[in-house]
Write a structure and sequence with these properties.
Rossmann fold; Helicase, Ruva Protein, domain 3; 5-stranded parallel beta sheet; alpha/beta; ATP binding; 21 helices; globular
């Protein structure tokens, strides 16, 4: 199919119709626009159009109700769905209804043009009919920020696959919630969802927990025990805190992923397995690989689809929606209805949330349970966030949570650095300045740790000794403090 084609656009907003008409026409497409679903369906039924772009909410019909008819009449016709609702369920419904792509409003025009070009250029194969039970009230993930829209769209693409997913993110960002969403809205939703936290199990018991054991396999094994792989058969196995898995268990897990079978501890008969693996970590696995603590080949087996969850600091605009969501959950559990004044919400949006969404949920539950008033004041929020101490806005802005990877710490630094310039951008040459700022303390730390021994420091850094000497000279490092 040609990269150029006839595009059918349906949207109730005249401004959007005009923008799309002009942009698509400019790159060589023939465009037909309408403000109602009936006209769009008439064009599709008549065999017109090579691609459809439609809003979900139309004056005469919801696009999700029309999509099954389009798929039945013309299963090869790609449909791009747009919506201002911007929720997780909107992305899922678009995927399940057979949409080629889902775009939240307001959309990026360049991105939309890229989607159109890709859809027209690639051969289209009709998707198999598959719709889960509608759960309009279910909202496993909350937020309408741009960061969450990217997550929703990625999840929607993953629902009808069995690809292994690696979820990374700070503690409290909702990694298990995302894993459950992948299962409950995916093709394995009728199977079991089994979760295991590697950090919560003694190292010498992890293999038994994963693969089960035979009677007498070790001291205390009085009976045969099924492992998590067997319990998750036909469903999803969620391996949380995968970075804490000991090396021996990593080797066995790699073998399962490669061969699709395993043996119980103390067993000899291979057992075939059919599970989808979703792993999660709050650690930098690449750093663990460099330290010899995580197998590189296992990392690539698990990291088929990487999915990074944003911290709450990166999506502070979602805080009002999250607060309402947690208050509603509290009401269902018998707690009194509450609301937070706008000033309190603003304080919450400026807070760094080292514990992320989990910390926010705990705060909202505490507010609902401990305060009698229906309206929570800004003073109460300030006191809760500062633990009774007057918060220092400057200190809060520079607070970096503990246990962050180097990459995560750099993200914090860069966010503050860009914010310090307001609406402007930093001066050119940022890349070299950042590299220089990182390189000097790295070399200095290596020299300090090796007590000034350049041969050991070069080996530690993985550099040639002459290269290290040059860096020491160029970076102006002349005093080495003793590590002892």
């Amino acid at each position: 199919m040609s990269a150029h084609g006839q595009i059918l656009v349906a949207d109730d907003d005249a401004a959007i119709r005009t923008v799309l008409n002009q942009a698509l026409s400019r790159v060589g497409h023939e465009v037909r626009v309408t403000s109602n679903a009936a006209t769009l369906w008439r064009w599709v039924a008549a065999g017109e159009g090579d691609l459809v772009i439609t809003d979900v909410v139309m004056p005469d019909e919801n696009a999700f109700d029309m999509l099954p008819r389009i798929r039945k009449a013309r299963p090869e016709l790609p449909v791009v769905v747009m919506s201002a609702q911007n929720t997780f369920m909107t992305a899922i419904r678009a995927s399940e209804a057979g949409a080629y792509e889902y775009l939240p409003k307001p959309f990026d025009l360049t991105e939309l043009l890229g989607i159109v070009q890709r859809a027209l250029a690639e051969p289209r194969k009709p998707k198999a009919d598959h719709r889960p039970e509608d759960q309009p009230d279910a909202m496993p993930l909350v937020g309408r920020s741009a960061a969450m829209q990217d997550i929703y769209r990625m999840l929607a693409r993953m629902m009808q696959t069995d690809l292994t997913v690696m979820i990374s993110g700070e503690s409290g960002t909702g990694k298990e919630l995302v894993a459950r969403a992948l299962h409950e809205y995916g093709r394995r939703r009728n199977g079991p969802f089994v979760a295991i936290n590697m950090a919560a199990i003694p190292r010498d018991l992890i293999e038994s927990e994963l693969f089960g054991h035979e009677k007498g396999a070790f001291t205390g094994a009085q009976n045969r025990s099924t492992g998590r792989f067997e319990q998750a058969e036909g469903g999803t196995l969620f391996l949380d805190e995968i970075g804490d898995m000991p090396m021996e268990a990593q080797t066995r897990l790699l073998r399962v992923l490669q061969q699709g079978e395993y043996t119980t501890v103390g067993g000899r008969t291979p057992i075939r397995t059919d599970v989808r693996i979703v792993a999660a970590t709050n650690k930098d696995l690449r750093a663990l690989i460099n330290q010899g603590l995580f197998r590189e080949d296992l990392f690539y087996r698990l990291n088929v689809v990487p999915l990074r969850l944003p911290s709450l600091r990166e999506r502070s605009e979602d805080i009002p929606d999250l607060v309402r969501h947690f208050f509603k959950q509290g009401e269902k559990e018998g707690l009194q209805a509450k609301r937070i004044v706008p000033g309190g919400i603003e304080l919450m949006k400026r807070y760094p949330w080292p514990g992320n969404v989990r910390e926010l949920e705990n705060l909202v539950r505490r507010l609902a349970a401990l305060y009698a008033q229906d309206e929570i004041s800004a003073d109460i929020i300030e006191a809760e966030l500062s633990n009774g101490e007057k918060p220092d806005p400057a200190a809060a802005a520079t607070l970096i949570p503990e246990n962050l990877s180097i990459g995560q710490a750099m993200e914090h630094y860069l966010q503050r650095h860009f914010a310090s310039y307001g609406p402007s951008l930093p001066p050119p040459g940022l890349y070299q300045r950042i590299i220089a700022e990182v390189e000097r303390p790295l070399v200095l730390a290596a020299m300090t740790a090796t007590r000034g021994n350049q041969i050991k420091a070069a080996e530690l850094l993985g550099l040639n000794r002459n290269t290290l000497r040059k860096k020491i000279r160029d970076l102006g490092i002349s005093v080495y403090k003793s590590a002892g």
